[in-house]
Amino acid sequence: MHSDFNIYGTQLNSRLILGSALYPSPALMQQALQQSGCEAVTLSLRRQAPEQQGGEQFWQLIRELKLQLLPNTAGCHSVQQAVTLAQMSREIFQTNWIKLELIGDDYNLQPEPMLLLQAAEHLLADGFEVLPYCTDDLVLCKRLYELGCKVLMPWAAPIGSGLGVLNPYALRTLRERLPDATLIVDAGLGVPSHACQVMEMGFDGVLLNSAVALAKDPVLMALAFSQAVAAGRSAFLAGAMPKQDFASPSTPVLGMPFWLQEAL
Ligand SMILES: CC(=O)[C@@H](O)[C@H](O)COP(=O)(O)O
C-alpha cells in the first residue's frame, strides 16, 4: 500500500523506526531489523563504540541492510557537544538527518528544552534536517515546529523504561494542536500494544529500541511491533466508534423473531 509517511521529503513505507543498540549480538540486530520491515535505523557515533558492538561486523551488517540512517546525538548535554557530534555524524553517515538528543537530567534522561531549542536553531541554519527528541510539552513542541523542525519526536516515557504512554492527554493534545507536523513517538514503549495505542491516536510513526533489543526473542518482538504499528495506523484511518457511558445492545431485540413470524 502506498504510504504518505515521509521524513523531510523521504518517503518511507514502514512507520516503525528501530534503534541499533543493546542487542545480544550484531547478527540478531540485523535479523530483527530485517524482520521488522523498518526502513530507517537510528545509531549513535558516541554510544556505538565499535568494540562494544562487534566492531567492523556491526557496521558491515548495518550497511548490508541498506536502510536510511538516522544518526543521533545520544549522551550530549550541551549545545556545543550536540552540534559537533551532528556535524561529525553528517560527514561519516552522509545524511542531513539528525535525531537531536540533548539530555537535561541524567536520572530520567529527560531532554533539556531550552538547549534543545538553541541546538535545533543552530543545526537547521547549518542545513540539517532536525528530528528533536523532546518531551510531550505542547509549548516546547510548538516552538520547535515554528523554528523549522518538520518532524518532532516526543517521548512516551523515559528512554529504556518500557512504561508506555505516561501522559495520553499530552500526546493527544500534541496531535490535535500540531496537525501538520510529522509526529513520531520516541522512547519508553515496552510492548507492541503501546505502539498500537499511539498509532491509533494518529501519530505518524514510532521509534523504539529497548523493547525489541531486550526482548527474549528480539526477532519475534520486531515482527510484533511492526504488526502493532500497522494495526494502529489502520485503526486510526478506519476511525474508531465513539465512546459512551451507557450500554447499547449490539444485537437488536426489537420486533418479532423471523421464525415466529413464519409460524403465525
Ligand atoms: C535508540 C534511541 O534513539 C533511543 O534513545 C530511543 O529514544 C529509544 O528509546 P527506547 O529504548 O525506550 O525505545
Automatic annotation (TrEMBL):
Entry-linked InterPro entries: Aldolase_TIM, Thiazole_synthase_ThiG, ThiG
GO molecular function, one term: thiazole synthase activity
Coiled-coil annotated residue ranges, if any: none
Catalytic reaction annotation: [ThiS sulfur-carrier protein]-C-terminal-Gly-aminoethanethioate + 2-iminoacetate + 1-deoxy-D-xylulose 5-phosphate = [ThiS sulfur-carrier protein]-C-terminal Gly-Gly + 2-[(2R,5Z)-2-carboxy-4-methylthiazol-5(2H)-ylidene]ethyl phosphate + 2 H2O + H(+)
Descriptive protein name: Thiazole synthase
Chain positions recorded as 1-deoxy-D-xylulose 5-phosphate binding sites: G160, A187, G188, N209, S210
Annotated family: Belongs to the ThiG family.
Entry annotation: catalytic residues: K99
GO biological process terms, semicolon-separated: thiamine diphosphate biosynthetic process
Keyword Flavoprotein included in the entry's annotation: no
Originating organism: Rheinheimera mesophila
Subcellular location: Cytoplasm
Chain's role: Catalyzes the rearrangement of 1-deoxy-D-xylulose 5-phosphate (DXP) to produce the thiazole phosphate moiety of thiamine. Sulfur is provided by the thiocarboxylate moiety of the carrier protein ThiS. In vitro, sulfur can be provided by H(2)S.
Annotated keywords: Cytoplasm, Schiff base, Thiamine biosynthesis, Transferase
Gene Ontology CC annotations of this record: cytoplasm
First-level EC class: transferase
Pathway: Cofactor biosynthesis; thiamine diphosphate biosynthesis
Pfam families hit by this protein: ThiG
Domain Thiazole synthase ThiG: 7-252
EC number(s) from the headed UniProt entry: 2.8.1.10
Subunit structure: Homotetramer. Forms heterodimers with either ThiH or ThiS.
